[in-house]
Design goal:
alpha/beta, Rossmann fold, 4-stranded antiparallel sheet, 11 helices
Amino acid sequence: MGVEICVEGLTKSFGHQVIWQDVSLTLPAGEVSVMLGPSGTGKSVFLKTLVGLLKPERGSITIAGQDITKLRERDLYEVRKLFGVLFQDGALFGSMSLYDNIAFPLREHTRHPENEVRRIVLEKMDMVGLIGAEDKLPGEISGGMRKRAGLARALVLDPEIILFDEPDSGLDPVRVAYLNQLIVDLNAQIDATFLIVTHDIASARLVPDNIGLLFRRELVMFGPRQELLTSDEPVVRQFLHGRMQGPIGMAEEKDAAQVEQELAELGTGASTGDGEASAAPMTPRLLPGPGVTRPPRWQAIAEREAELHQPQKKPEPEREPEQKEVTDA
């Protein structure tokens, strides 16, 4: 079972440069959350701060009842065992086989005998579809396989929290679709808390329970998926629809007057088809695939999705009352 992460008033700077400030959110236990934001807004810095690799200037991160910003290194090391991390490029050792890469955390952090290590490694490789590739080197496989190998390595210590740093980077749309399905299937199987940093809007619409957006050194919004996908917040709408009009510019920020003019022009274009897609139906949630047992949480999600997206029956046309023939007596 995953654990809840509670972030309160978190601020991180490098020298005089503030990356983000006063960030507060709660990642619910066992749920899938996505963090969006333009490039350079500190999404990867946020992941590193959550796992204790970077120290914030202010704020708290409470995990399993402990504020990790105040822990000694020895105690922080124990909390880190709750985490598994999938890095952007998989971060595999190039001279090691996939099997040895995935076995590495077990050999470093446990005293399991080698037969137990082998059982666990093959189990995780099977979960991500890599059985048969144990002896291959990272340089001999595709980018998608390297991502899956990195994910298998993140799973070997049975973490309760898994962080994904742009898992879709460098992958074609088909492999991204397979990876999204794999993430959903894994969440249904292991029930850990997932946090995914991504730029892929299609994935953000399909995969998570919750979505957040970082912009201008702050957390603009964080909440249930449907709230973000239907939000009227200008920066959220601009990012989700991938358009130029709005607060986000090439250098991240725009002049306020320019933003106001662009949004006004966008509003007038709504009737011609250039406006928002807010009236479009909500994208159906991606569900665990065939053969994956759905725990109660996912069963409830599936039932809710079925209700939301069931086809609506067209109303039958009213029938005119039949007229009786009048006969002479």
